[in-house]
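Input for the complex:
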Amino acid sequence: MKKYSKQRQLIYNSLKNRTDHPTAEQLYEDLKLEMPKIGIATVYRNLIELCESGEVIKLKSLNGPDRYDGNNKPHIHFECNKCNTLYDIFLNENDLKNMDDNINNISSLIGAKPEKTFLTITGRCGNCT
Amino acid sequence: MKKYSKQRQLIYNSLKNRTDHPTAEQLYEDLKLEMPKIGIATVYRNLIELCESGEVIKLKSLNGPDRYDGNNKPHIHFECNKCNTLYDIFLNENDLKNMDDNINNISSLIGAKPEKTFLTITGRCGNCT
DNA sequence: TTGAAATATGATAACGATTATCATTATTAT
DNA sequence: ATAATAATGATAATCGTTATCATATTTCAA
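Predicted:
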């Protein structure tokens, strides 16, 4: 049976309350301010848990370590290849539905059943032109 | 000036002649059959080159090391989360254009200039249902 | 051609990110 | 409360990748 722990709550809350997409290391550094004895392994362990349960999304960065997104509502990411900022882009309901239909159609081309879709656009963000 | 090397040619040709998406390690093992003295560092170095020149695409896998795709025409990937196979999915010209327009529109939402887009769908492939 | 300059190679050390190990501590259910 | 279970923190180990560097290959100009 799964047990409640202060650490897991803290990690969960922290990710839900921030809109950036920190690496495990960044999250760890920030959490130490609130809980100085927390260990980096605990952070990684709980990130795995939270990803498996679907509460958190793990994002594979093109340049750098994995990053974590506390927002599990479907959305798109834009990764700036200059400043490395990851932007969230939320589509309206209509566009989301269209995209979903597309994903299903595309998957059916190879007889596959889709579960999660990752759409990442890379390029220059507005601040880095 | 860039120099021609047997190794670079071999790596390039190998990636262009296979349609799977090998990891650097897999590629290395295969290349050793043809060129037993090739080093893993040479493989990595040339993969970096080939990716920078746009000849090859580096794919971030959700479970496992990076994989390399010798096909640089725009297409989509489906990653099976059971057998880890990466499938290519090619869209027709029309769908590609629509997608491209969408990417531009989406990027403009945050004032960004898109360069490359990565669309990966995960789920169960036809063989793993 | 040949030889000097430039660049790539292969062996391996070093590194960064992540996971495994394990003794200790915290949480849960009785 | 207490026993059972699961999580923690410290840190070792692992994995993928990059850096280093002496040697070898390639290129270009004479």
